[in-house]
Design brief:
single chain; Rossmann fold; five-stranded parallel β-sheet; 50% helix; Sig_transdc_resp-reg_C-effctor; transcription
């Protein structure tokens, strides 16, 4: 059972999402919150698999709430998915850096919402190739090179190759084809890289790949 916490200051949106999610046999909404502070408290209380959280809320916004969840070792199994009205914007980029697994636009069709919840619950990032391209464009206009490259020294050549392919928006099956290995081996390379780089999920791998310089915007 996938356990979901809804955090949004619009009761109508929460009730709509809840009605849709609760219809599924494998998904359960365990609680709702109207602001980020309440959402943090309920996350610690219920330990949901997924937190669907709005970016702009009173008291504590979605980015700060995401940052606090990602920084708490007791919440390591919680995947945060950002809800936004605007698609990929600077707020969403900041949320990804804070530790979000991905994002959803609030007018998402029901089938895509259900699919996205299940994808996030598996630990995969909600970063479609089109979204990855926008993330890359963010680095074209304002590249960031931090100390993130230090951890790359611990990766094997194959792990580095797999991370670079993740950053280009490839799925595990596509990475396996490119590297001429099995999808299971590709997943193993990615999981080991995530552990060595202390990345919560694939979304953070994408950010780390560009911040470290492992992949450059021209590699598109």
């Amino acid at each position: 059972m996938i356990r979901v916490l809804l955090v949004d200051d619009q009761p109508l949106l929460r009730s709509g999402f809840r009605a849709l999610l609760d219809l599924e046999d494998d998904i359960e909404v365990v609680a709702e919150a109207g602001d980020g502070m309440e959402g943090l408290a309920l996350t610690k209380e219920h330990l949901p698999d997924i937190v669907l959280i709005d970016i702009q809320m009173p008291v504590v916004d979605g980015i700060e709430a995401t940052r606090r969840i990602a920084a708490d070792p007791a919440l390591a199994g919680v995947h945060v998915v950002i809800l936004t009205n605007y698609g990929f914007d600077e707020y969403v980029f900041d949320a990804l850096r804070a530790g979000a697994a991905g994002f959803l636009v609030k007018d998402i069709v029901p089938e895509d919402l259900l699919h996205s919840v299940r994808v996030a619950a598996r630990g995969d990032a909600l970063l479609a190739p089109s979204i990855t391209r926008k993330l890359i464009n963010r680095y074209v206009t304002q590249p960031l090179h931090t100390g993130a490259g230090t951890g790359l020294k611990e990766l094997t050549n194959r792990e580095r190759e797999a991370v670079a392919l993740v950053a280009q928006g490839l799925s595990n099956d596509q990475i396996a084809d490119h590297m001429v290995i099995s999808p299971m081996t590709a997943k193993t390379h990615i999981n080991r890289a995530m552990a060595k780089l202390h990345a919560r999920d694939r979304a953070q791998l994408v950010v780390l790949a560009y911040e470290s310089g492992l992949v450059a915007p021209r590699d598109r």
